[in-house]
Amino acid sequence: MHIPDGFLTPPVWATLDAAALPAVGYFVRRTQAQFDESRAPLLGVMGAFVFAAQMVNFPVGVGTSGHLVGGTLLAVTLGPYAATVVMTAILVVQALVFQDGGVTALGANVLNMAVAGVWLGYLPVKLAGGPRRVALFLGGWMSVFGAALLATVQLSLSHVASDGPLFASMLGIHAITGLAEGAITMTAVEAIGKLSPKFVFRGEA
Amino acid sequence: MKRAAWVVGVAALLLAGVAGWVASTAPDGLERVAESLGFASRGRAVAPSSPFADYRTRLVPAGLVGVVLLYGFGVLFGRTLKRKK
């Protein structure tokens, strides 16, 4: 659901860029101040892993594909603050090096996937008091569906199509992609937890 | 944790290496909706063309470039963490 350049009108993308910049600044500073240094090696490998996983598109119904976004996966390994920073870095590399997602739309994509995607994905885990299976699944689903909902609102504000079909088709497809996100997140966190229980984040910050 | 970090790192390289062969090339959800509702043509690239655009290169699986960049980001960002006593 990376929004390319051209889909959003200038007032919409410029506003979202202006909002994303201080938001990311806040998450960077907060992570720098509070992230546990002993976990620093995870920043690089989890960013690399989620970037790579996002490349593997799988079929979702006929003629459509989806891929992992990884908001919940990053949040439960790095904590939500660092997860937002790392997801932002992934989106920046995708936009600038791979032309996956627009440059003007970077603010929109960051707010949708790195901020909303990570924090909505983390919410059920936080409420469940830990990375329980149901919470991981629900988190994965919510992170994709929530990010898609925001993207759809932004597209609607840009008048790309009439609202009825736009919301119905975007939310319909991403409700299904979200199920795959939930299942993959659950499996990946379990596998990582077996490798090293410490890899799975349990504290604040 | 170090061993687990290695495993995840190697998994990232493997995934990026094979993604070009195994990934579905069908449009993703947003692309599909843009096609069926007729606004796909609005999309245009603003960034200067990149040799790795859309993860396509002939020499090296392009994803490996991204894996290295993201790993590098994590290492550099890790160095900016404030030391705690």
Q: Which features characterize this protein?
A:
heterodimer; A: 205 residues; mainly alpha; two-stranded antiparallel ribbon; 7 helices; 2 strands; globular; B: 85 residues; 3 helices; 0% strand
Question: What do you see in this structure?
Answer:
The complex is a heterodimer of chains A (205) and B (85). Chain A is mostly helical and 205 residues long. In chain A, 72% of the residues lie in helices and 2% in strands. A two-stranded antiparallel ribbon of chain A has the order 1-2. In chain A, a hairpin with a 5-residue loop joins strand 1 (58-59) and strand 2. In chain A, helix 1 (10-34) packs across helix 5 (106-127) and helix 5 (106-127) packs antiparallel against helix 6 (133-157). The model of chain A has no long low-confidence stretch (mean pLDDT 95). With 85 residues, chain B is mainly alpha-helical. Chain B contains three helices and no strands. Chain B has helices spanning 2-22, 29-36, 62-79. The longest helix of chain B has 21 residues, at 2-22. Chain B is extended, with a radius of gyration of 18 Å. The mean pLDDT of chain B is 87. Chains A and B meet through helix 1, helix 2, strand 1, strand 2 and helix 4 of A and helix 1, helix 2 and helix 3 of B.
Low-pLDDT sequence parts of chain B: none
Strand content of chain A: under 5%
Largest interface (CB within 8 Å) is between: A-B, 69 and 64 residues
Low-pLDDT segments of chain A: none
Oligomer: heterodimer
**Order of helical and strand elements of chain B:** HHH
- What is the 3D shape of chain A? globular
Topology order of chain A in helix (H) and strand (E) letters: HHEEHHHHH
The total beta strand count of chain A reads 2
What is the first-to-last residue Cα distance of chain B?
Answer: 22 Å
Helical fraction of chain A: over 70%
Q: Look at the structure and give the mean pLDDT of chain B.
A: 87
Question: How many individual β-strands of chain B?
Answer: 0
Helix/strand class of chain A: mainly alpha
